[in-house]
Specification:
heterodimer, A: 283 residues, elongated, B: 160 residues, mainly beta, 3 domains, three-stranded antiparallel sheet, globular
Chain lengths: 283, 160
């Protein structure tokens, strides 16, 4: 099952041109949905107004070279390793779903556009991607999701905000079931279950890619931009009007704030993790 | 004026929900981000503002003493043991920075075990002082209490 191309048998039913057309259609729907979402929420307008405000209150200007350094740092920290999450469980689950999704989507497109699958690597990666999606996603869905964890909401209470995660999870789950049923023989495979799960896979997949305007899908484009802006704001001193992150051993800081050396000494000790010592679960 | 949340910064971790003494910071059911459910019950204690790991919570000042356009923001760094404030006037020119050691007790260490305390005597009940009031806040006994006058020192965890 793991090393067979799940789309191979399908070519007998649906021509590969139609499958390729479907992939292109999904891509167009994502682009369209993102643009509509941006227009509807005015997120781009907010982003640029915010950037302008930050520039006005900047204490120093950030050079282009420095900005590209910040872009690399954003890519390495926030984008590739989900560094924005302070909760390690959420970070791990996000990494699983993110890389699972990328593997799944890329290998699907490659297999449908005729990449060589004889070695079995691509189908294996496709299954691995779907499995990673399921592990990270269901962990998130049943245990980590904010209002399940914090507000005592039941996992089966769906809202519009769940459109993205639910369609994503169903897509991966139905894909795995469909692939499993294809590999089987006998009664189960003959009874049309394979077609049923293929249909469910296509429906959930279409919902995932066609509802970008209403779902959380577009966060994969907005979040890196927001993370980059946050880093630039920290670098230019505007930092949403937040105080600077002082180095307590710096003599200039000690001269400006004499309370620090007086009460804490010239080289203040580490004061412990404080509120981060335990997770927020006291309510 | 009460707290509000910058939705692009909040990740719904629940620290503000956890710490709010009025229990009015909740997680929005649609957006899964924190918000103040009852702004008129917020007394601007800044607990959530200081607890937020992403600096996603801000407070609007009352318009009579802090006209719109100003900013009062805080960064409580428990690992360094300091609290930093930045106060910006609406003219954009006056921009004040303050930095001081944290002088409150560490998180989780001051849950009062009232059942273990001795019951207040008749004399204590009639007194103006609050039950169990630490001597450091009393003003009727000598001068102003300082760390030095009480022979105390800051140590890890911002203990005295």
């Amino acid at each position: 099952m793991i090393t067979t191309n799940p789309f191979y048998e399908l070519t007998a039913l649906i021509s590969s041109e139609i499958m390729q057309g479907y992939i292109i259609l999904m891509f167009i729907l994502v682009v369209l949905g993102t643009v509509l979402d941006m227009m509807h929420k005015k997120s781009a307008q907010y982003f640029f107004e915010n950037a302008k405000k930050a520039k006005e209150s900047a204490k120093r200007s950030v050079s282009t070279g420095e900005k590209s350094g910040l872009a690399v740092a954003t890519l390495a920290n926030e984008v590739l390793t989900s560094g924005e999450f302070s909760n390690p469980k959420r970070r791990l689950s996000h990494l699983l779903t993110m890389y699972g999704f990328i593997l799944f989507v890329v290998t699907t497109a490659m297999m449908i556009f005729g990449a060589d699958t004889s070695s079995g690597t691509l189908p294996m990666l496709w299954h691995l991607g779907a499995a990673m999606l399921c592990i990270g996603g269901y962990w998130f869905w049943f245990f980590i999701r904010v209002d399940v964890n914090s507000e005592g909401v039941r996992w089966y209470q769906l809202r519009r905000a769940d459109l993205f995660i639910v369609s994503l999870l169903l897509t991966a789950t139905f894909a795995l079931i469909w692939s499993y049923l294809q590999s089987g023989t006998g009664a189960v495979a003959d009874m049309g279950w394979t077609s049923l799960f293929f249909a469910l896979f296509i429906i959930s997949n279409t919902v995932l890619f066609s509802t970008v305007m209403w779902s959380k899908f577009a966060h994969m484009f907005f979040k890196p931009a927001a993370a980059f802006q946050k880093r630039v704001a920290e670098a230019d001193g505007s930092n949403l009007n937040l105080p600077a992150d002082y180095d307590l051993t710096d003599p200039a800081v000690q001269a400006k704030f004499p309370d620090i050396p007086e009460y804490m000494g010239k080289n203040p000790a580490y004061m412990g993790p404080g509120i981060r010592r335990e997770s927020a679960n006291h309510y | 004026m009460p707290t509000f949340v910058y939705m692009t910064r909040c990740d719904g971790c629940g620290q503000c929900v956890d710490i709010c003494p009025s229990d009015i910071m909740h997680i929005d059911k649609t957006l899964r981000r924190a918000y103040n459910i009852e702004p008129n019950m917020c007394w601007e204690c800044y607990s959530c503002v200081k607890a937020c790991p992403h600096h996603a919570i801000d407070v609007r000042g009352y318009a009579d003493f802090a006209p719109l356009g100003h900013s009062v923001r805080v960064h409580r760094d428990e690992e360094k043991g300091t609290i930093a404030w930045r106060i910006k006037f609406r003219n954009g020119k006056k921009d004040m920075d303050l930095l001081a050691p944290i002088t409150t007790k560490p998180w989780g260490t001051c849950i009062p075990q009232l059942s273990e305390e001795a019951a207040p005597s008749k004399e204590m009940r009639d007194s103006e002082l609050l039950f169990n009031e630490p001597k450091y806040v009393r003003m009727d006994d000598g001068g102003l209490h300082t760390l030095e006058s009480n022979g105390l020192k800051l140590k890890e965890g911002v203990y005295y």
